[in-house]
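Worked example

This section walks through a single chain of length 798. The input is the sequence exactly as stored; nothing has been trimmed or padded.
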Amino acid sequence: MRLLMRDRNGELSLTNDLFDDIPPYAILSHRWSENIAEEVTFEEIKNGTGRSKSAYRKIEFCAEQARRDGLQYFWVDTCCIDKSTMDEVQASINSMFRWYRDAAQCYVYLSDVSMTAVLSRNGSQADSDQVELSREAVLRGSKWFTRGWTLQELLAPASVQFFSREGLRLGDKVSLEQEIHTITKIPIPALRKTTPFDQFDVDERLRWAEMRQTTREEDWAYSLLGIFDVFMPLNYGEGRDNAIQRLRKEIENTPKRQASFSTQILEKFQDKGATLLTSFSDLWDILISATTGHKKWGVVCILDALDECETLGRNQLIDAISKFSSRTTTHAPALKFLLTSRPYVDMKRRFRHLECDLPTIHLKGENEEEITKISHEIDMAIRSRVMDISRTLELGLEEQNVLIEELTLGQSRTYLWVHLVFDEIQNGILLTPGKIRSEVRNIPRTVSEAYNRILSKSRDISLARKLLHIVVAAARPLTLLEMALALAIGPKHQSIGDIDLVPEEQFRDDIRQLCGLFVVVVDSKVYLLHQTAREFLVSPPSWSSPLGSSTALQWKFSLHPKESHRILAEICILRLSLLDFNLSGLRASADQYQYIAMRTFLQYAAQFWADHFREANWNSKDWAAERAISYCRPDLPTSAWFEIYRRLATRDMPGNFTPLLVASYFGLSTIVERLPKKVLKDVNVKDSKHGRSSISWAAGEGYGAVLQWLPRGSTVRRLLGIGARINSKDRYGGTPLHWASRNGHDTVVKQLLESGADTNAKDNDARTPLHWASQNGRDTIWRDAASLGFPERPRYRS
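Given that input, the structure is written out below as C-alpha cells.
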C-alpha cells in the first residue's frame, strides 16, 4: 500500500510500498470522472505532473482535509495504484475493503453536489433550516450512491464524512444515517457495524448492490469481495454472471465464523453503561445480532404468559416480534418465537395480521372438559404443597387431610390463589389441631380476597398506596433506589443531600412490610406479583373516581390511572428540579451516560415526566402544572432535561423546539392552554429538521384522542382553535392528515376531516392521506372519510 503525502515544499509525493507499521491515514471515496483521462494517475504523481487535470482538485481537497484532521498521509485509488501491472491491480482489489476499513477517516467527495448552487437558489440569506433541507435533497440525487465500488467504501470505514464539490461538509454516516438508509435500503445495524456482515444472509448482502453499476461488468462481483470477506483472482472478460458464480462458490467454501457475542455486549456496555439495560432497542439489537449467525440449528425464544407483562414493554416486544416475523425472506429465520397468552382482545388484535402466515393454536380452557382437567392439576399442586408445609409446621396426617379437603372445595381455585393462600398459611395463621378447620375456612376464597387481606395488613396504608400508585403507572419497573427516592422526595427538597434515603437492603424489607406479597423485588427492581394485581387495584379509565371503600374489598379498584400519573409526574418534576443536575454539568462530563446513571431517578424523570403529565388531570392551582411550563421553554435552565431525553429517544423528534412544539410533540394540552398569547403566535412555526408544525407533530403522535375521563378537549382541537394551519406541509410534503392517517390515529383523522383537512393533498411521493390509510389497512379511517362524503378508496400500488 502506497500513501500520498506533502513534502517540505508542499508538493505531493508517494511513500514506498508499505506492508507493516502503516501510519494513520485518510482515504478518499469518489466517483471517477466521465472522461477517465481527467483522472490523475500513478505515473503523473511520480513525475509531478497532472495538476492541470480537473480531477486534481479532489486530490488537493483530500490532502487539505487530512491536514485539518491532523493526518499526514492519505490514499486515493486513481493515483496510489500502479495500474500498469495486473498483479498490483489484483492485489489492490483484494485488499481494498481492508484499506478502507483501517483508515482513520474516509472522505466522500460528491462531485455532483454543489452547495454553492443550493445557497444561490435559496438566496444569500438562506438560513440553516434551508441549507439542511437542501443538503438532504441533493444527497439523494448524487450518483455516488449508484456506483458499485462505493458500497464497500460506505460500509467498511468506521468514520465516513460527506463533502460537496466545494469541500463543504454535509454530515457524516452517523448524522445522515436515516437518509443513507432510505437511499440504499441497507439495514441500520449494517451501517453502524453493530451487526457483523456475515450475520446477514448472502442474498440480502447481494441485494445491497442490486441497483448499483460498474463500468466493467465483472467489477460488480469484484467490488463485493470485502463485504463477503473472500479473496479470489480477477478474470476480466469472464462476464458478470460468471464472476458472480465464482463469488458465490468462494462464499460457500469459506469457513463460517461466529462473532463473539460476549465481546459485542461488553463493547456496548462500556459505551452506554447501565443505560443499555433500560434501552429496548439496544437489547433487541443484541438479541438479533446474537442469533442471526446460528442458522444451522436456530434459536427458539419461549415467552410464557405474555399478557402478564407490563403494558409498555409488552407492546414494544409484540411490535418488534411482529415486524421481525413479517419480513419477507427466502429462508426460515434462525430466530423463532413461541408465545403464550390469554386470548385478550388487545393481544389478538396486535397479532391478527400474522395469523394467516404463522401457526396459531387456541387452547379452549373455557369449556367444561378443560376446566375439569385444570382443576385436577391444581388439586395435585395443593396436595404437594400441603406435604411440603406439613414438615415445617409439624402437621399430622389427619391435619393434612383436613387442609387438603378444605382447600380443594372452592370453585375459584387458580395457581395464583394457591400461591397466596399457602403464604398466608405459613406466615399468617396459627394451625392448632383443634382449630385447623375453622382457621382454614377463614382463608380468602378468591384471589381478590387474598389481595385485599394482604394490603389491609400494611403498617402504613398511606405510604403503601403511594408506592402502588407509582408501580402501576411507571413506564418501566423502578429499581429499589429509584423507588426509595420517589417515595421520599418532596417539594421542600432542593438537593439530593436533603433527602433522607433508606439503604437499599433496608428498603427491600420495608416494601415487604408495606405491601406484603403483593409487590415483589426481582433483580433489585420492583414489580407487582401478578398481572391480576394490577387488574384488582386499577379502576377503569372511564370511571370518574376510584371505587375504593364503597365495596367489601377496600383495595379493589382503589387507584385511578389519572391520579397515579399525577403522583408520578409530580415526583419526576421534583427530581428534575434538584440542584445536582444542570446542563453545564452534563455537557462538561467526560462520560455523560455515567453522569446520568450516577444520579438516581434522573434518567427516568427526564424520559417519562411528560408522558405522565399528559395522562394526568390538572387544575388551575396545581404547582406542578405551573412548573411544567418552564420545562417547555428551551431558553430556561429548567429545560436541561431535554438533553437527556434527546439521547434516549427512539422515535422521530423535532430538530429544535419552541414551547408550543414541545407541548404539541408530547401532547400536553394543559400546557397549550396555559401558554401566553405571544407564544401561541408561533403556532405555525416549523422545526428545523423535518419542517413540521405543532399541529403536524400532535396529529402524527395521536394526541387528539379524547379519553372519556378527560373532557377538556384534545391537543389537536386546541391547536386548531388558535389558528394552526390545518394543511401545512413539511419538507416531505406531508400534512397533519398525512401523519395521522399513516400512523392510524382514527380520532385525530376524524377531527381533521371535520375541520376541513385536504384529503387530496399529495406528499413528495405523490401519496394522499387516504393512500396511506389504504396502504396500512386503516378501515376505520375510510369509514369516517366516506361518512363525510369523501371519495371511495383508491387502489394504491407500493
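What to look for: The mean pLDDT is 84.
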